[in-house]
Backbone:
């Protein structure tokens, strides 16, 4: 459903792939690196929680450019399980 929304409503033309097709067996950080290499990624957009396992030193070993998502300034809204 997410891909359908992205393509049909938002007009996104990016190729979507299931990471399961790459049969990654490595840890989180090494797994990210392996996926990026296997799909020849040049940019990787990741959320701030990835900073818990992607160190600055590790990022220098990866060819893809890392872009950290920044959620500051987003308006708060009611959540099923507060706090926001």
Residues:
């Amino acid at each position: 459903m997410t891909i359908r929304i992205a393509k049909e409503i938002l007009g996104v033309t990016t190729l979507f792939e299931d990471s399961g097709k790459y049969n990654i067996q490595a840890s989180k950080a090494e797994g990210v690196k392996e996926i990026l290499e296997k799909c020849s990624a040049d940019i990787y957009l990741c959320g701030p929680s990835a900073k818990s396992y992607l160190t600055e030193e590790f990022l220098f070993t990866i060819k893809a450019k890392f872009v950290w998502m920044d959620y500051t300034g987003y308006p708060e809204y009611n959540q099923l399980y507060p706090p926001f």
